[in-house]
């Protein structure tokens, strides 16, 4: 980068870290929403947020949502509604429900915008940036409590407003950052393999999140304190600083999507074992769960933004699926704890925690077996990241993929431009990216895509990927 560009990029990095950290800190200051909120209708707000994530992911996948600006506007509006309704003298009934729904949707939309900002940076930049934002997040609450103990509400509004302003700045300049940071080479693995990896990672996140939601609801019923305690703040600062320093020193090239679940499942099993051995503990139980959940989502954001960058896939799709599934699972776990099963678990906490540890352990084992099966399949088909990739040259893999695409083109009589668009679109690139790459308008790209879809007899990206995969299979059989 040129010196002037580097200075500008560093200023944007600082703005992103502070803005993202302020957003997460504002969520902690707003005790009425979030996975551990004890307020009425809190579960409805969590579920609304999860549904919002998944809805955005679906729109992004079918190519109907490629820019973050509509999400930014919708998020600002929803959070404004949340602030106004929460400030009502005696919020109850429909007002309380509307406040929770607005908060859940607003936080989801704004967080997705921040993730699109981070996906514009190389993982070696973005991963430490997210971790640094986590540090800002965890230090904001104790600082506010120490210096503004009687103005928590005003501090929440001010911090949220600053975060939204910085988000607007980062979104406005995101394209220039992406042009500097984005690699020019195509993804090296097939979309079918990436889909298999993502399914496994999301399944693990669902198991972990549902378990956490169940425990949180049980704690709320027992009156356990969560985000309000000083221990939560201290523990959060220690963990966030350790994570940030470790990442800065390690300088990882990316964060793997297979790592967050087993790491956090092991941490949750340790927390449950501690609580089983200390059933009367009232100091560490809540804070450990809060910091564990925050760390889990931090790792999820790191992993899936890295994947979006590396594969040139829409970050709104990847993050929407991952975080949306997790939030809905937390809501489901909390709802399950309000049933007879929750009452039974409350009477036999030692047995309940033992069962949860067993379920998490089984899920980790299943995920590991799935991981081995995926690598075995990758090795058999010659995918790029099989275990013996040193012996499997990239040129051979690329030739197989090119042969599959050539077979697709000749079989369905695609024009040269239609073939170019299909080639780029099947690699996960958005219509806007393809337009910039081919020096076309988005309208023209979508027209070529629509005509190609008609010739191929497909109606969605997934059907296109399935067709290409069948062509790859035909190529492999012919060799």
Order of helices and strands: HHHHHHHHHHHHHHHHHH
Helical segment tally? 18
N/C terminus separation: 45 Å
Counting helices, strands and paired strands, the structural category is mainly alpha
Describe the global form: globular
Q: Regions with pLDDT < 50 over 5+ consecutive residues? A: 381-400
Number of strands: 0
Percent of residues in helices: over 70%
| Average pLDDT over all residues | 81
- Biggest pleated-sheet summary: none
User: Radius of gyration in whole Å, from Cα?
Assistant: 23 Å
| Beta-strand content estimate | under 5%
Question: Brief description of this entry?
Answer:
By secondary structure, the protein is an all-alpha fold. The protein contains 18 helices and no strands.
Overview of the molecule:
By secondary structure, the chain is an all-alpha fold. It has 18 helices and no strands. It has helices at 3-29, 42-61, 69-86, 94-118, 123-147, 152-181, 191-222, 230-250, 260-277, 285-311, 315-337, 340-347, 349-381, 394-412, 416-426, 431-438, 442-456, 461-478.
